Each structure stands twice: as structure tokens, then as C-alpha cells.
Amino acid sequence: MQLQVKQEKMLIAGQWIAAEQTFDVFDPQDNRLIAKVPLATENDMLMAIEKADEAYLNNKYWPTYARMAVLQRVASYIEENKERYAETIALEGSKTIQEARGEVKRAIQTIKISAEEARRINGETINFDQSESGENRVGYYYRFPVGVIGAITPFNDPLNLVAHKVGPAIASGNAVIVKPASDTPLSALLLAEAFTKSGLPAGMLSVVTGSGRDVGDVLVTHPSITMITFTGGVDVGKKIAHKAGIKKVGMELGSNSPVIVLKDADVEKAVASCVSGAFTVAGQNCIGVQRVYVEKEVYDQFLELYKHRTSELHLGDKMDPLTDIGPMINEREAKRVEAWVNQAVVEGAKIQIGGKKERAFYYPTILTDVPSNAVIAQEEIFGPVVLVYSVEDVHQAIDQSNAVDYGLQAGIFTKDLENAFLTIQELEVGGIMVNDSSDYRIDAMPFGGVKQSGLGREGIKSSIEAMTELKVVSFKLN
Question: For the whole model, what pTM was predicted?
Fold first, then answer.
């Protein structure tokens, strides 16, 4: 298919703006140039912040019904253009066309839920007379927007993870500036197009493309930015937290997700779920299955079936609807995964299937006998590799699951309610999926983790709570 190289513009305060310099966006499958995107400068970001601050002040009393109407129109616009959105996601990133279509569907839901949650930004009455000093007082609290939000987004869900930040921000009356991943800026720009076509007041949304070094630090440190919401790696997250100063910070920083399979589990269902959970989006998924702890009685059965199901996955052209796995985001990342696997093998791990790289493609890989202190066991792989271990019982599985510095989500397969509730209590994670892999999420649920997996919770309602402040009101009566 012959591709025409797009000359993109970025959105600053309602205006589509070019830049003197651009950067290239490539299709990771074959390294074809697909777009030239503005390389924003520090001055571009400063202008976006200034205009966002003005827009927020001009729309400080923007009514709920009007915010809802904009979001509803955005959802309709994406629905009407869903194939263009899906093709853009697939071309610039790692997703197959089928995975991209699924992401578009989720993004529409995210925006629709944001519109619905806008009507539920409520407060509560307060019983001031619970204190002796509170007699003859009545009051309440209500929520108001924080102001101007800086949103920094990753490459792996280039539309829906942007929607997860922009949707709640607009629903709660904030202005928002998005700095999308430089590998996948096109989907964020398409989302901005939907907002501009839907009557969003100018300045309430900007999408500033370019280098994190050039514009990211300005966004993070500027005093007019009252909140930073970031999804990405731990090292970058730590730097942002250090630089941000006294402002709200919400972070989703990745994981090393475990799944426990006990001897009473439906092994076939566990295998099917763990195949999908480990290898969807070429493993570049923060809640993807990375470690599987299988009770020894069913370990051999699980491993053989897991290898067989993995061998059936089709790796190839991501625009082919029959393809299961596309490329990683670039060859550099594929080389990193290859190096981690090779190092684990040197340290004693065994490759049961996979372990091969071709350009930016890395074959779905199952490892066994991986030392617990290996890099690939302790850190987030963010690639199509899964580690399978045999354990004596649920207690050993819990101990080993917790023996990393991450805690986003986990899964357990069992028919025993006592063991299910034991893992619910003991696993150090932000979400536990019972009889599902770790790779399950709906866009309305609170989403986030503990330890190095992040700060706070996303999900529409949770994000709106984070993007608003409480104001207490007390009336003293005569």
C-alpha cells in the first residue's frame, strides 16, 4: 500500500499550528515514513500554557450541560470516523488493525462515560452540629476544577490513554495540555480534531508535539500548571515527581503483573486468558501477564497447553485482520527484550518457545527456570515474553508474586473462595482479577497500583476526583 506522508499541525489554543522544524513518525512494521509532525519549542509550550490559563478563567463557570454536550459530540465524531482512527492507531504503533478497532471502541466509551460522570460531580452536606462549637451552623462541600492540567501520555494506547486524561479533565471543567508520545502523536492529534469539531472553547485543549526535553520540562514545572497526569516508565515518573513541585501529581508507572493458577482451576480457560494477557499488543501493556505461578499438580499440563496455544499465534502484517501480533514500537525495544531474554538464559532460564527477533518483531516467548533475581523477573518486560514457574501452594505463589517492586494488577484462577479471598487480602496490587488474567480492565473502574506502579487512581470517576478540589462552606445562623 502506497502511503502519502502527512504534514501534520499541532493544536494550540484552538489553532492548528505548523512549526519551523518537524520530526518523523514511522510505521514500526517496515520503518516507512508516514508523517512529519511539528517539533514544538519552549515558546510553543509557553503559549499553550498562557492560552490554557486564559481559557480556564474565561470558562470558569462553564455549565455542566455544555461540558456534557461537547463530550457527547466528540464520541459521535469518533464513531462516525472510527475506521480512520483505527487505521491511524495501527499505522503509527504496534497494534494490529483488530486491536486498534478495539481501542477506538474503548475510547468512545471513555468519552461517553466522561460525559455521564460530569453530571455526578457532587458534594455532601456536613453535620456541623456533631461538634459543640457547630451548633447553629449548616453547610456542605462541593468540588471545583483544579485549573490547567498537563497530561503526558505513552505510545501503547495512543488514543484511549489520551482520552482517559482529556475526557475527565473536560468533564470537570479543566483546561488540559497534552504532550503525546513522540512515537505515536497522530492519534492524539485526531482526538484533538474531534474536540475542535465539537464546539470545545478555544484554549481548553492543546496538543503540543515534540521532545520531552524541549517542552516536557516546561509543562511539568510551570506554576500555572496545577496538576500533572503521567503514564509511562518509573524512571521518567521519578524525574517528573522531583521537578513538579507543589502541585497535584497522578502517575501510572507500569508493572510486572503476576497470575496464579491453582490446581483446582479450569486450566484451559487459564491458558487462553494468559495467552491473550501476555501477548496482546506485542506484550506492550502495563497490565499484561509477565509471571505465571502454577501449582505443581497442574504445572506440566498448563505449560504444554500454554506452549501449544502460543505456537498458534500468527505474527505478521498488522493491517491483516488475521494477524495476532504485530511489531514492537521500534527495533530498539525489540533489541532490549532480546538482550533481557539472552541474559536470563545465561543465568539459567530455558526458552520453551520463541526467543527470536526479526527487525522490530519479537516472537511470543515463554521462559521457565528464570532466576528470581534476573532483570527480566524483577523489572517490567513490556514485550511479548512470559515467565512460568511451578509453586508448591497458594502461599508460595503469593510470596513470589509480591517479591517485586511493582503492584498494579494480578490474576488468580481457582474455584476455592477461601484461596481467592486470601490472595485478595495478601497480594500487594491495586486490582485483582479472579478467574481472569491481570490483563482485564473496564474504563469506568478505578485503575492504578501500589509500590512503583504509581500514584493515585485513574478511571473516569477517580480521575475526575483527582482533577477537582474540595471547598467547604459553613453558614452560621442567628
Answer: 0.95
